[in-house]
Amino acid sequence: MRISKAQIEQAHERIKPFIHQTPVLTCSTINKMAGASLFFKCENFQKIGAFKIRGGMNAVLTLPQDKLANGIATHSSGNHAQAIAFAARQTGTKAYIVMPSNSPRVKVNAVKGYGAEITFCEPNQQARETALQEIVDRTGAEFIHPYNDERVITGQATCAKELLEEIPKLDAVIAPVGGGGLLSGTALSVLYFSPGTVVYAGEPEGAADAVRSMKSGKIEDAPYINTIADGLLTKLGDKTFPIIYEHVKEIFTVTDEEIIAALRLVYERMKIVVEPSCVVPLAAVLKNNKVFAGKRIGIILSGGNIDLSKLAGWFNAA
Question: Do domains 5-49+149-317 and 53-143 have the same CATH topology?
């Protein structure tokens, strides 16, 4: 099924009472470094501190009451977990969240704060899915996938829709890619609301499944997993990949050192709190400046939920 322009517009109206229309910021210093005009869509200022509230809220608000009655469930290391917990509280239902044991403490605390019931599991996909299935079997809760769900993709698309409405005539938009919910939604909004704009993505070298998938034409595993961008560790899904494969021009990979350099730049020059996954697109633009030179580029800063105790270690190591 193809997600339509009308479905994205309807999702935007549906979730507006529950989200912020986040600001678009610029930075002259970073523009000079990039040799381009960069427009940062700041989802780090979003409810729950990340874009994930858009997809999570849209998915929950489209559920009929009889399904809501048994609660909602998901597995997530952080931002989607917060989105589902928040959405459950807003709709008066129960949230059951499976989180890996190594999830960032700041995100675990936020999920608890929204009143969700957390089940911890070993940090691998099989453990997540097994624990989740047990919860769904026991409670009858509705599973909302973190990204491989058309309701979620449609909600995430509203982020780029806002950006394109506020900053028209962008030459390109670049987003981070993990499971692909944000990137596939971004690609669809660009297709419908600014068809002359090109879509790119940034991906950590330490979780580079999407770039391999684009080259082979089918969903691939990353050759290895080792990155500070913890929000981008998941691989593409069968709903997100076809959209990305058709509508995203190129995916650029960046090292953790390049991610840290971009993180430092945003902290020092823009004075805003962002998480490592969030600055992967900026790192990609700076690394591939010949591709973007002289152009108007929209960059989606996906979130700002960071364990501040880790900053010193990252910056001292850089």
Answer: yes
Residue 280 in this model has a pLDDT that exceeds 60 = yes
Name the CATH code of domain 5-49+149-317 (choices 3.90.850.10, 3.10.450.120, 3.40.50.10990, 3.40.50.1100). 3.40.50.1100
Distance CA 24, CA 70 (A): 38
Question: Helix (H, G, I), strand (E, B), or coil: what is residue 266?
Answer: helix
Reading the block at residue 232, the tokens are 């981008």
What would you report as the CA-atom Rg of the chain, rounded to the nearest whole angstrom? 18
- The fraction of the chain above a pLDDT of 70, given in percent, is 99
pLDDT digits (tens, 9 = 90+) for 91-122: 999 999 999 888 878 888 989 999 999 999 99
β-strands 24-25, 37-42 pairing: antiparallel
What topology does CATH give the domain 53-143? Answer: Rossmann fold (3.40.50)
User: Which residue ranges make up each domain of the chain?
Assistant: 5-49+149-317, 53-143
What is the Cα 247 distance to its own chain's centre?
17
Please enumerate in sequence order all residues whose Cβ is within 8 A of that of 316, keeping only pairs 6 or more positions apart, or say none. none
Helix (H, G, I), strand (E, B) or coil at 74: strand
Q: What is the side-by-side strand order in the sheet with 172-176?
A: 24-25, 37-42, 296-301, 172-176, 198-204, 250-254
Angle (CA) 301-166-296 rounded to 5° is 65
CB 30 within 8 Å of CB 291: no
- Inform me whether the pLDDT recorded for 1 exceeds 80: no
Is residue 190 a contact partner of residue 232, using CB atoms and an 8 Å limit? Answer: no
3-state helix, strand, coil split of the chain in percent (to 5) is 55, 15, 30
How many Cα atoms are found within 13 Å in the side-chain-facing hemisphere of 63?
25
Question: Whole-prediction pTM value?
Answer: 0.95
pLDDT tens-digit profile of 65-75?
888 999 999 99
